[in-house]
Amino acid sequence: LAVSPATVSGAWHALAGVGLVVSRGRAGTVVLPAGATWLPPRYRDLVGAHGEVRLDLSTGTPDTQLLPDLAPLLARLGSRALTTSYLDSPVLPGLETQLRGSWPYPVEAVTVVDGAFDAMARSLELVVRFGDRVVVENPCFPPLLDLLDQLGAERVPVAMDEEGMLPGHLADSLGTAPAAVVLQPRAHNPTGTSMTAGRAGELARVLRSHRDAQRTVVVEDDHSGQVATAPDVSLGTLLPERVLHIRSFSKSHGPDLRIAALGGPALLVDKIVARRMLGPGWTSRMLQQVLLDLLVGDEGITAVADARRVYHSRQRELAKALHVHGSTAVAGDGINLWLPVASERAATVHLAAAGVKVAPGTPFGAGPSPDGDHVRVTVGVVRGEFAELGELLARAAVA
Fold first, then answer.
1. pLDDT for 171-210, tens place per residue?
2. Domain boundaries, the chain
3. What is the dihedral of CA 124, 127, 131, 132, to 10 degrees?
4. 3-state DSSP call for residue 358?
5. What is the pTM of this model?
6. CA dihedral in degrees (290, 293, 294, 295; nearest 10)?
7. What are phi and psi of 38, to 5 degrees?
8. Which phi and psi (to 5°) does residue 112 adopt?
9. Residue 9 CB-density burial (10 A; 0-12 exposed, 13-18 middle, 19+ buried)
10. In the chain, which stretches have pLDDT less than 70?
11. Measured CA angle at 383 (ends 339, 226), to 5 deg
C-alpha cells in the first residue's frame, strides 16, 4: 500500500475508536458486527457503532446517581396487587388529583401511559392518517421521524430560535393543512431550548387564525418535566381544545418507571384510553403508587430539586469550559448540550479516539440544517473534569 506502519497503526486505532474493529491480541483485529437490527433506523444512527469508551455522552439519559431512591417505596408496596377489576379506572385517583393540580392549564381529561414516547405514538396514531402532513421542529427527536415514517406521514420541518418554534415559519407550514404540530415546550432535545410564554402566545395565535389549521392538533412533549428549570409553558393555556400535553417522569424519577401523563380534550384522551383497553389496559398501578409517593413525599421532592440544580450547574460549567477555548455552544435546559462543529464525522472520530462518545447530529435533522453540523452531548452525566472535557470538545469542534 506504500504507507508507513505508523499510518496503518493510526488507521486501526481510529477504527477501533469509533467501534468498527476490536483488537484481540494474538487473535488479531476483528471487524465488529453491525448494531442491533431491532432498532428503528434513526435510533440505530443515534446509537452508532458499539465500542469501548471511557465516557459515553451519547445516551440522552439522566444520571442514575441523581434519581430518587425507589427501594423504600417498593418495600412499602407490600405483596398485594392494587387492581381489583380489569375495568377499574386506568389512573389511581390520588395520582390523577396530583397531576391535575400541577398541570399547566385546566385540562378536561388526563391519563397515564408507558412513557413519553408511548404517549406520542398513541397521540399521533389517533390524529394522523397515511399521507397526512405533520409539522415538526428542526432539529427534533430522531425516533419521532421514525414514527412518522411508520405512519406514512409527511414531515414539515419548522426552524427554531432560542425561544422555540418560529411563528412565521409555522404560519408558512400551516398552508399544507397539517394534521398535527409536534413540539417540545422545554429542555428541547437536542438543543436545550425552552419555549417562552410570549412565544407560546404567538404560536397559538397563528394556529387559531390560520384557515388551513382549524383541525390541527398540537402534541407537546414535555419529556424532561421536573428536571427542567424553565416554567411549564403550554399552548393548552390558549388552545385547550386542541392540545395534547405529555409530561414524562423518566428523567426526573427514573426511566424504568415507564410512566408519563397525557392530558387534553376528553374527545381525544378518552379515545386513547379506549384503545389501550384493547392492548396493555393500564399502566401498572403499583408503579403509579410509587410515582405518587415520589411526587408528594419530602424525599422525592428533594431528590428531584437537587437533580434539577445539579443539571443546571453542569450545563453552565461545561459551557464555560467550552467558551474558554472559543466554542460558541450555549448552555441549555435539561441534560443535553447542542455543540456546533465544523464536521460531524471529524468531531465524532476525534472524540472516539479519546474514548468519548457523543451523539451525531444528523439523525436529529427533520430537514436541511441552517446552522451547519452539530453533535449532541449529554452533559447531565458529566460529574467532573469540566475543564478537560471542554478543551477536548472544543478541539473536536474544529477538527
1. 999 999 999 999 999 999 999 999 999 999 999 999 999 9
2. 5-65+301-397, 71-297
3. -100
4. strand
5. 0.89
6. 120
7. -80, -10
8. -125, 135
9. exposed
10. 1-2, 10, 12-28, 30, 32-36, 48-51, 79-81
11. 75
Q: By the 8 A CB rule, do 133 and 212 touch?
A: no
Output the CA torsion sign for 28, 29, 31, 36: positive
| Cα-based torsion angle of the residue sequence 155, 157, 158, 163 in order, rounded to the nearest 10 degrees | 90
CB 192 within 8 A of CB 336: yes
CA 331, CA 75: separation in Å to the nearest integer? 39
Closest CA to 81 of 220, 350, 289, 254: 289
CA distance 235 to 70: 33
Q: What does the block give as the cell for 286? A: 403499583
Residue type, 12: W
Tell me the CATH number for domain 5-65+301-397. Answer: 3.90.1150.10
Would you state the pLDDT for residue 1? 62
Alpha helices in 79-196 (DSSP H): 93-102, 116-127, 142-151, 167-173
Integer Cα distance of 150 and 191 in angstroms = 25
C-alpha cell at 233: 409553558
Q: What angle do CA 388, 313, 56 make, to 5 degrees?
A: 50
Distance CA 106, CA 180 (A): 21
One-letter amino acid for residue 346 of the chain: A
d(Cα 341, Cα 328) in Å, to the nearest integer? 10
CB 399 within 8 A of CB 351: no
| Grid cell at residue 117 | 414516547
Residues 136 and 145 sit within 8 Å (Cβ to Cβ): yes
CB 91 within 8 A of CB 220: no
Any residues with CB less than 8 A from the CB of 260 and at least 6 apart, and which? 112, 113, 114, 115, 116, 118, 119, 246, 247, 248, 249, 250
The alpha helices in 180-297, defined as continuous H runs, are 197-209, 250-253, 266-277, 285-296
Show the cell assigned to 294: 415520589
Q: Around Cβ 72, how many Cβ atoms within 10 Å? A: 11
The CA distances from residue 92 to 1, 16, 30, 291, in Å, are 69, 50, 53, 11
Cis peptide before 139 (omega within 30 of 0): yes
CATH assignment of 71-297, among 3.30.360.10, 3.60.130.10, 3.40.640.10, 3.10.20.30: 3.40.640.10
